[in-house]
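Fold this sequence, please.
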Amino acid sequence: MSTSEGSLPKSYALLLVSVFLWALNYISRQILLQEFSPFFLSALSLTVVSCVFLAGAFLTKSFVSITRKELLLLLLSATIGLIANQIFLYKGLQQTTATNASLIFTLSPLMTAGLAAVFLKERVTWRMIIGCLIAILGLFQALNMSGFHMQIGDWMILGATFTFSCNLIFVRILSKRLSPFMVTTYSFAVSCIFYDPFVLLFTKPEWNHSLSIWTLAIVSILVAQGLTNVMWNKGMKTVGAAKAAIVLNLQPMMTMLLEFILLGHIVTAKQIFGVALVFVGVLLGTMQRSFFKRKRPADIKHNLN
């Protein structure tokens, strides 16, 4: 067995653990929202991540100068992709279930592909269109929608998904010259400069929470936005982006299972069917054509060598 083959089970384990932790984080955020306001929790999340990345950039001496165009894109990334995204996310989680939030977020790859087609002139395929329609049909089933009458919390999560997808486009453009690490560092730092004073001046943060709540908040932020991203990238490096995307789309199912086990939420057959449709739709719309092609024996022999 080759080293690559031997590392596959470990890589898939890293991906599954990452998805499990992301699913669990939806539930932990809902617990935290019973103690903190969405504005304070979003500011805390941005600040903690910003401090970690700034410390890393300082220790590795990674700081580089930026152009005016890059500064504009960083401002867009900070305000739309981070600040607006966090507000939509936490406000949405106050008014919808963790399963619904996780399910809606699976549409991010399709939204990103659509934005890339508009702004980056990337090609839109019929497979992407059909996959998008199947995923939307699945959402109608899973969210028990009547027309486009979603709950306000679901609309906010949809806004969080859209702003997250916008940020992926900003990061893709910025990464042509800057490293992804520095793009993340600068964008989080800028978001704190703009957002933290607003939260401190115009809201009333409550600091007298128990140690367990503060611990849950900090651990949740560091694990969900730090450790799991490292684990995910490491696993994806071996498995490949296409197969990793399949594992990522298991997140709504994991979230639904965790809500059932931890919170006792009822799971209906209609929800399960809807989640399955979303999984199929996103899979169809985001997989590369080469993923579906059957490899010839000569290709397999070449890969083993």
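The mean pLDDT is 83. The chain has 14 helices and no strands.
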